[in-house]
Amino acid sequence: MTSNKGFASLPGKKRRERISNTNLLLTITICTFVCMYIIAMLIWGGGFLNPQQFLDIFNNNAFLIVISCGLTIVMIAGGIDISVGGITALVTMACVVYLDDHGGSVAGSVGLALGIGIAFGLVQGILISYLEIQPFIITLAGMFFAKGMTTIVSATPRTAAHEAFVALKQFRIEIPGIGSYGKTGNFIPAEIELGVIVALVVVLAVLVILKWTRFGRNLYAVGGNRQSALMLGINVKRTQFFSYLLSGLLSGIGGYVYLLHTGAGNASNATAAEMQAIASAIIGGTLLTGGVGNVIGTLFGVLSLKTFSNIVVASGLREPYWQSITTGLMLCFFILIQSVILALRDKGGFKLLLPKWIRLKSEKSA
Amino acid sequence: MAKVLKKFLRSQIIVPLFALLLLIIFNLIRDIGFFSLTVTTNNDGNTVLSGNIISILNGASELAILAIGMTLVTASSRGQDISVGAEAAIAGSVFVSVLRSNQITWPVILAAFLASCVVAIVSGAFNGTLVAVFKIQPMIATLILFTAGRSIAYWINGGATPTVESPLLGYIGSFIPGIPIPTPIIIVIIFGILIWLVLRFTNLGLYTQAVGINEKAARLNGINVVGMKLLSFMILGVCAAISGAINVSRIGLINHETLLLDIEMDAILAVAIGGNSLSGGKFSLAGSVVGAYIIQALTITLYAMKVPSTAVKAYKAIVIIVIVVLSSPIIKEYVLRLRDKMMRRPAKITDHQQSITGDSKSL
Fold it and tell me: Within its chain, how far is the Cα of A363 from the centroid?
């Protein structure tokens, strides 16, 4: 993070304008999360010292991590997708009905989940990128459609009874060496669900896509400045289309992960998940204007959001309304920080860089 | 005359009006008596009009008022306020808590309404400050109140869903004795006329458009950009307070969870269906109001077709997609080119096309 003053006047030096400099925002998010957790451990101890409770944040919110990744992709490209929560609910319901009423197999239900996600992504992507309709309206209609379809598929909540699926749902991975001691003194190993593995694989995959593929770099270019991206010969419409397709696909995966966690199909599943996903992405340093963002930040955004609600409960504010009031405050805090940092950057007071390990090679060498 | 007609056909309100007309024709074909009005006597002994057309006009009152405010916010800040439902819930809670602590008389109702207006304006100003001063995208800035607002409403009520009962509130929520039209419709008409007068005799409309089209140019021309944005959010706050008060009077209780639920989405839809660009600039309030009535007419039609209330959303979504696809610039251009080809005239660039290239980066 050396001074950048000289580079503009040195055209001969190998140097290019950075596109996704979110280092500071990302660092703030990670630091806040770590500090929050350490303070919680020191003050409230108890549950926060239990590794299982930390892993439960992952267990309970694996689906949120997955759909937030999709939303991060879309937001980096300068769009918005609020249909993700609706698709999640539809996938859970459709899969349960398919498994129980139509004698489906587990593989078939996974295919169904992916198919629903891709179908939504495909239609929304075409309408938004090729017909140039505002993404908010299309994905809002997508959300309405998905939620309405969920109740059409089955009006009452359903719980999956399919044997193979239930076995898969109850599958737990024990983490060796980590665990807690129960009241009788026996060792209870910490465990994670299958969905967490899926979520982490998705995070890694999206990280690789955003960093090392041409498509990923195009996303930043399109989100940063559509016109310049077009001038550079980037296929703006196709990039946009694939961002929505990916988001749809990830919503499908997210829906299945949700089903793996709860095992039930319900129209009220994943209510307001889209807003939580947007909030997570923002806390993680993604800007809704596009061009800036990072999937690692999003992961920490989800973790911060959920740790914060745990802290609120632990500190004795048990009434349900405190949860959302404090979440709102936290969101307010991060949004203001972003705004101040961006204002300072525009004035040249700050330089935002990606941390070394996440930067492209050419950026490192410079 | 032909010129006026041509101008009308090119205006942005034509697509929503056409959609409304299609809905009406569809209903008439389905059931010829759909729009019949009947004069009945209600429980209070008033002579009132009833029928589907009244329930459409009546039911869309809150939405129409919010759509007006949302149009101004969209035009000036190039984004949408998703916290209007929460704002209305907060305002409604204040309204109810003032009413419950006093004997309900007209001055008390007025005081309660003013108090709820003040609170709603403050929350609007909060959103507006984040957007105008801190330069945060409206959707993100209002996400804060969207998350916290309904809980704040719950907190104001002390964690309950209190009821308020008074014949005076019935006058606001349903009928005034002697007038056969539901009061919410009259409130919408009065509010619409007020806004029209304000736009007609002040520079509000012009300045709002100027800020939305080019912020920098507006500032260089001496327009207070921050002030205009703040003002639009505060007007939306007033709109939220009015719809909150109407809704509370209509139902007679405040439920922070269900009061005007999802209305923010419907209000944004009304703006979009009305042919307004969601990325700011030029706007048409009439279009948004027509959009609000389209949404309500669609809902009532679906109910009349015995669609379960939970499934209405799916059909609504399909109709919405059809409307926005039809009014999308690409399709419009294609239709115009097709028409020109059929009339053997060279295709020319429409002003619509020009306005689109300017704001290709929406949201």
Answer: 26
A267: which chain B residues are within 8 Å (Cβ-Cβ)? 310
Domain region containing A63: 19-365
Restricting to A residues 121-140, those with a Cβ less than 8 Å away from any Cβ of B are 127, 130-138, 140
Residue of chain B whose alpha carbon sits nearest to that of A290: B363
Is the CB of A268 inside 8 Å of chain B's CB atoms?
no
Residue A237 has pLDDT above 90, yes or no: yes
Q: Do B330 and A80 touch (CB under 8 A)?
A: no
Residue B141, exposed/middle/buried by CB under 10 A (0-12, 13-18, 19+)? buried
Number of C-beta neighbours around residue B204 at 10 A: 18
Residue A185 makes CB contacts below 8 A (sequence gap 6+) with: none
C-alpha to C-alpha distance for A161 and B177, rounded to whole angstroms: 58
Residue A130: inside a domain: yes
Q: How close B127 comes to chain A (CA, Å)?
A: 11
Q: Are B284 and B273 in contact (CB under 8 A)?
A: no
Report the greatest alpha carbon distance in chain B.
73
- Looking at residue A316, what DSSP letter applies? T
Is residue A59 within 8 Å of A193, Cβ to Cβ? Answer: yes
Asked if the Cβ–Cβ distance from B308 to A155 is below 8 Å, we say yes
Task: Tell me the per-residue pLDDT of A57-104, one tens digit each, with 9 for 90 and over.
Answer: 999 999 999 999 999 999 999 999 989 999 999 999 999 999 999 888
β-sheet bridge partners, residue A328:
none
Dihedral, A278, A280, A282, A288 alpha carbons, nearest 10: -20
* Least Cα separation, residue B76 to chain A (angstroms): 17
Domains along chain B with CATH numbers = 53-311 (1.10.3470)
Condensed to tens digits (0 to 9), the pLDDT of residues A291-317 reads 888 899 999 999 999 998 888 888 888
What is the DSSP track for B76-141? Answer: HHSS--TTHHHHHHHHHHHHHHHHHTS---HHHHHHHHHHHHHHHHHHHHHHHHHHHTS---HHHH
Q: Is residue A14 part of a domain?
A: no
Q: Which of residues 35-54 of B touch A (CB under 8 A)?
A: none
Asked if B307 is an interface residue toward chain A (Cβ–Cβ < 8 A), one would say: no
User: What is chain A's length?
Assistant: 366
Mean pLDDT along residues A345-354: 58
Q: Is the pLDDT of residue A361 over 60?
A: no
SS3 B216: helix
- Give the domain CATH number at A49: 1.10.3470
A327 has a chain B CB within 8 A of its CB: yes
For A308, the 3-state DSSP assignment is: helix
Cross-chain Cβ contact B311/A327 below 8 Å: no
Q: How far apart are CA B336 and CA B347, in angstroms?
A: 8
Counting the structural domains of chain A, the total is 1
Torsion angle (degrees, nearest 10) of CA B244, B250, B253, B259: -40
- The residue written with tokens 């309900």 in the block is B104
Between CA A321 and CA B178 the distance in angstroms is 43
A324 contacts B147? CB cut-off 8 A: yes
Cβ of A7 under 8 Å from any chain B Cβ? Answer: no
User: Is A112 contained in some domain?
Assistant: yes
pLDDT of residue A358: 53
Tell me what percent of the residues of chain A surpass a pLDDT of 70: 87
Radius of gyration over alpha carbons of chain A, in Å?
21
pLDDT band at A290 (very low <50, low <70, confident <90, very high): confident
Shortest Cα–Cα distance, A65 to chain B (Å): 19
